[in-house]
UniProtKB/TrEMBL annotation:
The keyword Cell membrane does not apply. It comes from Vagococcus hydrophili. GO terms for biological process: phosphatidic acid biosynthetic process. One of its GO terms (molecular function) is 1-acylglycerol-3-phosphate O-acyltransferase activity. PANTHER family: 1-ACYL-SN-GLYCEROL-3-PHOSPHATE ACYLTRANSFERASE. Keywords: Acyltransferase, Transferase. This is 1-acyl-sn-glycerol-3-phosphate acyltransferase. Residues 37-147 form the Phospholipid/glycerol acyltransferase domain. InterPro entries: Plipid/glycerol_acylTrfase.
Amino acid sequence: MTFMYRFLLGVVRVLTFLINTNARYIGRNNLPKDENYVLVGPHRTWFEPLYFAMGAWPRKFSFMAKKELFNNKFLGFILKKCHVFPVDRENPGPSAIKTPVRALKNTDLSVMVFPSGSRYSDDLKGGAAVIAKMAKVKIVPAVYQGPLTFGGLFTKKRVTMAFGEPIDISDIKKLDKEGIAEVERRMQKAFKELDTQINPDFVYHKPVKKEKK
């Protein structure tokens, strides 16, 4: 699995450089080197996980992905080899928490989570907080600013990723409604600070979700 992850990430690194050539990473020194963590970010484009993974290298990640992606056998095979596991977004079961917690505890894999779960929402859910708390790891905030479509990358517009200081939630004794709200407050605060660090005038405009016919 590690070979496939490294190989494909290397391919992605070359392709994104050829397509854009204008990426920069801020705050890499904030990424823990000797411990696993949960990397979180506001979900803005489908390819930002690739940029986060490249920025955090040599740290490797396990990812969540909607189960529909695994319907294609070939794609499902590749995803599994790259530490991606399926999640039913409509009815997430216990495995949506247990699988990443096991990865954090028992492997050298960190976990990448987009708390909002969708590019069409900025409301944070409690999954990242629960995973980090159960695995007893820190949360590392990250943001992406740049083109929001694949075609936009060809314009050579700058792509910027910023990684923030780890968020320690060990002081939160209970992840009840108030506890989860406090973790979400800390994440939102970190996202805002990182966005401002990159561009004080940045505003993210959520895309309009197309209705299925």
